[in-house]
Design goal:
It comes from Maribellus comscasis. GO terms for molecular function: metal ion binding; metallopeptidase activity. The structure is a single chain. The chain is globular. By secondary structure, the protein is of the alpha+beta class. 39% of the residues lie in helices and 17% in strands. The chain folds into four domains: 214 residues, Metalloenzyme, LuxS/M16 peptidase-like (Cytochrome Bc1 Complex, Chain A, domain 1, 2-Layer Sandwich); 187 residues, Cytochrome Bc1 Complex, Chain A, domain 1; 206 residues, Metalloenzyme, LuxS/M16 peptidase-like (Cytochrome Bc1 Complex, Chain A, domain 1, 2-Layer Sandwich); 200 residues, Metalloenzyme, LuxS/M16 peptidase-like (Cytochrome Bc1 Complex, Chain A, domain 1). It contains 33 helices and 24 strands.
Length: 932
């Protein structure tokens, strides 16, 4: 599964909150080919790109017990090759054209997509049509075996080797009957994946991956009269399959409550999940259930926050939400409790919160808050051609029409207080539920009352499931289907669209805040941030996490507003406002409708200049942060990150400690520490504003006048961090996670900063090694060996630090070989790459730039790059000039200069009992066992 895409479209749609009769809609043209393929076209000429989304109405809900995971497994197979497109060529061809592609499977569907420069649209249609109509013959035993192993490793990474990973499996098994399609997870059962045959999946494919069970949606810069003949050319001759009837809703009921528990090998804190069966998506009651979840736990005035978090202090937060799918729905309460907290107490608090809800009811203001942000979310959701293509295709397949959006909006507008109370009474109050208690190993006393052992059987890592690829030696001939069109001929691409860099304006207000802006008039939105240099690097090491702590506290009310009042003000504007801290700075981030720009700026001024310093919220924030750290302590990915940073930066460098702090440093932080850090770091002298949206320069600068007048500047001394030295020689460091199903590998060394002249050349040089799906390490470890779900290499840096990393999570029993492969390929890469690989790199990176300025987020990122690293406004053009001028010899010189195989830290997090000794054979000496 490359990605899993799951939409709750109703929440992405909305009605306007002004007084106009304007309707929020996406214009489109729809028609059907003779073979039943539904086509939806939406023109958007704002950028010279096109999104192609193809929605197959087949997910795991079309499978049967004993043959699960087929939809997802076939998603993988469809990226391998087809009759007229060679092995691993899908990614290569799209990337080389400057595009991006991916796909995903969920319970109800499978979707594939490309976003390409408009000159590559015909190629994208050729690729998609070939894997729709001419794929089955390429499903050979060897190709199938490889993807079986990849998916098994994906399951380990996503489920088996992470805290609470088995929870969704447990809920499905107990909420739905054995034959119900939601009884199993999308990824399927490991045994089914292992036992699946080529014939099984071919039969599954021929039944469901057919034109008459599919919607093709195009959104972007094209001419309708040009694209229709192309769609007919490539898809028209694909024969229709047997009629595939839409599944009817299959809601379930529970006769009794089921309470189960599991001792989790990776959990450090207990987690309680309670689930009630509800209704399918787009039914009237599904909308009311969505509102119910938000009202129960969506803000600081909600019953769950007040009881579970604030009064009883059992957990940092409580999640309550409805998830309606095509066939049925489920209403979930999920609470990850504080360390050593009894889940019996948590369950009692849940019912206390329900009782409080029953007593207090719902006000019209509660409804108003929930609906206020829908317009903003709608516009954000259609800011890219890709999201528009997704939405049109999904509405067509699951609601019957791409134009269902207007009915969706009407359904949301129609929800009443009575509707919400009705669904609470009907589906939740006093109704049976499924409850799961996940507790750390050895802490069974924390489970909810009357829970029974779930009996989860975990994979034995010494006998890890694996399809033996070496046993398949015979090369299978791929037969080609006779077609009217010569599909072996790849369509020619037209002229590359011209790269147009947006105009950037700059300004400065009286107190020193520098402003960088881009006027973007496609949507009535504005996205802006105020960034200040400092952040984590300004902290004393013994108080690590104080910047992150302060960022959280600033959102806990102002001098004039309680935490609840501040949150409500933001919600009623339909805006998002947050404060964040990073290694080198802090940022206030805002996304809102343009008409609310000044009102959000008034709130930002209060947040920045008038902190509340609320003692009660201080203790709640501290508890939340400490428990988050403790929760991470058994997460292999987190352990790898922490260990790698300690080694790279050294004990004396603040960056050797996570920016979120440690349990010890967070416990030591006082309110005075926050105030002191605030007083010495929060100054407009080190602040920059980045603003993108439908707003003029004059309006921005005028809006800033109050903040400028009231925020006094002072000098802030930004420390210079010492650049760490390379290690004397490469060595392996091992962190033991007993029973780990995978080993998390991070290999690397200190490297250049982001401000170095070599930084952008380094990212170009790295591209073929591991900077993309077609990188060497991914092609070997995933596509050839099937050891991992993905392997990457990259350079990461800021103004004061930088490092090179190679990373993957691999099957435990493949740890030694994977480390050896990384070592060998990194060493070989310094010897140079073939000219064709350099040409692929150049083409992929340069042509992709036309996709780089489409959305508010992309433009905002451009401004932060420019201001953070003092880049010229046309830095993209300059980067293109470098890429074009790069030679094979120049590439090799960069690799030899910036990648140092003899001076690397090899960090492996896994099961020491089975993997530690084997790593002695890699040639880097005896591994060092790290005690954390």
């Amino acid at each position: 599964m490359l990605i899993t895409i799951s939409f709750f479209i109703g929440l992405f749609s909305c009605t306007t909150t002004n007084n106009s009769d304007e309707k929020l809609r996406i214009s489109y043209e729809q028609y059907e080919l003779a073979n039943g393929l539904n086509v939806v076209l939406h023109q958007d000429k704002s950028d010279p790109i096109v999104a192609v989304a193809i929605q197959y109405h087949v997910g795991s809900n079309r499978e049967v017990p004993g043959k699960t995971g087929f939809a997802h497994l076939f998603e993988h197979m469809m990226f391998q090759q087809s009759e007229n497109v060679g092995q691993d060529e899908f990614f290569k061809k799209i990337q080389e054209a400057g595009g991006t592609l991916n796909g995903g499977t969920n319970y109800d569907g499978t979707i594939y997509y490309e976003v390409v420069p408009k000159n590559a649209l015909e190629m994208a249609l050729w690729l998609e049509s070939d894997r729709m109509g001419y794929l089955e013959n390429t499903v050979t035993k060897s190709a199938f075996a490889n993807q079986q192993n990849v998916v098994q490793n994906e399951k380990r990474q996503s489920y088996d080797n992470r805290p609470y990973g088995f929870n969704s499996l447990l809920i499905g098994k107990n909420l739905y009957p054995e034959a119900h399609p939601y009884n199993w997870t999308v990824i399927g059962e490991m045994e089914d994946l292992f036992n699946a045959t080529v014939e099984d999946v071919k039969e599954f494919h021929s039944k469901y991956y057919v034109p008459n069970n599919t919607t093709l949606a195009l959104a972007g810069d094209f001419e309708v009269e040009d694209v229709k003949p192309l769609i007919e050319k490539y898809f028209g001759e694909i024969p229709a399959g047997e009629k595939v009837a839409d599944l009817e809703p299959m809601p379930v009921t529970l006769n009794e409550t089921k309470k189960l528990y599991h001792e989790d090998n990776f959990a450090k804190t207990p987690q309680l999940t309670m689930v009630w069966p509800t209704v399918e998506e787009y039914s009237k009651e599904s909308y009311a259930l969505q509102f119910l979840g938000q009202i129960l736990a969506g803000d600081k005035k909600s019953p769950f926050y007040r009881v579970v978090v604030k009064e009883k202090k059992l957990a940092p937060r409580a999640g309550v939400y409805n998830g309606s799918r095509e066939l049925a729905g489920q209403f979930t309460v999920s609470i990850n409790a504080n360390v050593n907290t009894s889940l019996a107490d948590v369950e009692d608090a849940v019912f206390e919160a329900f009782k409080l809800f029953e007593e207090e009811g719902i006000t019209e203001r509660d409804l108003e808050k929930q609906k206020a942000g829908l317009e903003t979310r709608f516009y954000n959701n259609i800011s890219s051609v890709l999201m528009k293509s997704f939405q049109l295709a999904s509405y067509n397949e699951y609601a019957g029409s791409p134009g269902f959006i207007e009915q969706d909006i009407a359904n949301i507008k129609a929800v009443t207080i009575g509707d919400i109370l009705s669904v609470y009474e009907k589906y939740i109050k006093d109704k049976p539920f499924v409850s799961t208690s996940f507790v750390p190993k050895g802490q069974v006393e924390l489970v909810a009352a009357n829970s029974v052992d779930a009996g989860i059987v975990e994979e034995n890592i010494l006998e890890a499931t694996e399809v033996d690829q070496s046993a398949i030696t015979e090369e299978e001939e791929i037969k080609k289907t006779v077609t009217n069109l010569d599909r072996t001929v790849e369509p020619e691409k037209g002229p590359q669209p011209e790269l147009k860099i947006p105009d950037v304006w700059t300004d400065e207000v009286a107190n020193g805040i520098k402003i960088y802006g881009i006027e973007y008039n496609e949507l009535p939105l504005v996205q802006y941030s105020i960034s200040m240099d400092g952040g984590h690097m300004m902290e004393p090491k013994e108080k690590a996490g104080v910047a992150s702590f302060l960022a959280s506290m600033l959102m806990e009310g102002t001098a004039n507003k309680t935490p609840e009042e501040l949150e409500e003000e933001i919600d009623l504007l339909g805006a998002r406002i947050g404060v964040y801290s990073g290694n080198e700075g802090m940022q206030v981030y805002v996304n809102s409708l343009t008409r609310n720009f000044e009102k959000t700026l008034e709130l930002v001024e209060e947040i920045l200049l008038e902190p509340r310093w609320d003692e009660e919220q201080f203790e709640l924030v501290k508890s939340r942060m400490v428990n988050n750290v403790k929760r991470n302590e058994a997460n292999p990915d987190y352990l790898s990150y922490v260990t790698f940073n300690k080694l790279v930066f050294g004990e004396d460098n603040i960056l050797s400690v996570p920016s979120g702090g440690t349990a010890e440093t967070l416990e030591s932080i006082t309110m005075e520490d926050l105030k002191e850090f605030y007083k010495r770091t929060f100054s407009p002298s080190v602040a920059r504003m980045h603003v993108v949206g439908k707003i003029s320069q004059d309006r921005v600068t005028e809006g800033l006048q109050s903040l400028s007048a009231n925020w006094e500047p002072f000098d802030v001394e930004i420390p210079k961090l010492e650049q760490p030295e390379l290690p004397g020689k490469s060595k392996i460091y091992f962190v033991d996670v007993p029973g780990a199903k995978q080993s998390v590998i991070n290999i690397g060394h200190p490297s250049i900063t982001h401000t170095s002249a070599d930084y952008q050349p380094a990212t170009v040089m790295n591209y073929k090694l591991g900077g993309s799906f077609n990188g060497i390490v991914n092609m070997i470890l995933r596509e050839e060996k099937g050891f991992t779900y993905g392997a990457r290499t990259y350079f990461q840096g800021g103004k004061n630090y930088g490092y090179f990393v190679a990373a993957a999570s691999v099957r435990s029993s493949a740890t030694e070989e994977s480390v050896r492969i990384f070592k060998e390929e990194i060493e070989k890469y310094r010897n140079g790459i073939p000219a064709e690989d350099l040409q692929f790199t150049k083409s992929a990176l340069i042509k992709s730039n036309v996709r780089g300025f489409e959305t508010l987020g992309a433009l905002h990122n451009m401004l932060t790059e420019i201001s953070s690293y003092n880049l010229p406004f046309d830095y993209v053009k300059q980067e293109e000039e470098f890429i074009n001028s790069l030679t094979v010899e120049g590439h090799q010189q960069l690799a030899q200069k910036l990648i140092q195989p003899e001076h690397m830290y090899y960090v492996v997090v896994g099961d020491a009992k089975t993997q530690l000794d084997a790593l002695k054979n890699v040639g880097l000496g005896d591994p060092v066992l790290i005690e954390l």
